[in-house]
Amino acid sequence: MSVSLNGNIKEGLFHWHGLHYRELFQPLYARLLWQSFEFSFVTTLTCVLLGYPVALALATMPKRWKPICLMLLLIPFWSSSLVRIYALLTLLKAKGLINGALLYLGIIKMPLPLLYTKVAVIIGQVYTLLPFMILPIYVLLDEYDSSWIEAAKDLGASSTQLFWRIFWPYSLPAVGSGVMCVFLPAMTLFYIPSLLGDRSSLMLGNVIQEQIMNQDNWPGGAATSLLLTAALLVFTLVYRALFHKKRGGRLG
Amino acid sequence: MNRLTRSLFFLVMAFLYIPMVVVVLFSFNHSLHSLIWHGWTWQWYSKLWHDALLAKVTWHSLCLGFSAAFISTVLGAVVSYSLYRYRFFGRRLISGLLIVLIVIPDLVMAIALMILFRSAHVSFGFVTLFLAHVSFCLPFSVMVISNRLSDLNPQLLLAAEDLGASLWQQWWWVMIPAMRSALLVSALLSFMLSFDDVVISFFVSGPNYVTLPLHVYAMAKLGANPEINALCSLLLLLTVAVVLISQRLLGKKT
Question: N or C: which end of chain B has fewer CB within 10 A?
Answer without folding.
Answer: C
